Structure formats: structure tokens, C-alpha cells
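FAQ

Q: What does a record look like?
A: Structure on top, sequence underneath. For example:
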């Protein structure tokens, strides 16, 4: 696992948290929820790609 991946996920989390707080303070709770949901989906796609790469490596290693 690469350290850059952790920094990327942390940066997305910080950005989403700041946007969420700004939108909630502005009275736009629905857009804040959508922003949070979009951030979660982006992070999940990144994690799924990494898990897929892990499974490919395991298959190649054990010749499955």
C-alpha cells in the first residue's frame, strides 16, 4: 500500500468535511449531504480499485 493513497483519502476527507460545514452554515443541508455522499463514493471507488489490484496480485502469486 502506498502512502500517497492514504494522503489522497485524507485530503478528500478534509475537503469534504470543510465543504459540509460551509454548506450547513449557509443553510443548505441537502447540498451538504450530497457533497458528503459524493466524497464517500469517490473514496469507495479508490479503495475498490486497490482491493481489485490486491486480488489480482494474489491470483498471480498463487497461479489461480
Amino acid at each position: 500500500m502506498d502512502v500517497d493513497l492514504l494522503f489522497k483519502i485524507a485530503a478528500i476527507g478534509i475537503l469534504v468535511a470543510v465543504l459540509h460545514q460551509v454548506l450547513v452554515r449557509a443553510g443548505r443541508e441537502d447540498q451538504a449531504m450530497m457533497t458528503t455522499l459524493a466524497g464517500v463514493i469517490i473514496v469507495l471507488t479508490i479503495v475498490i480499485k486497490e482491493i481489485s489490484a490486491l486480488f489480482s496480485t494474489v491470483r498471480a502469486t498463487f497461479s489461480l
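Q: Is there anything notable about this one?
A: The mean pLDDT is 94.
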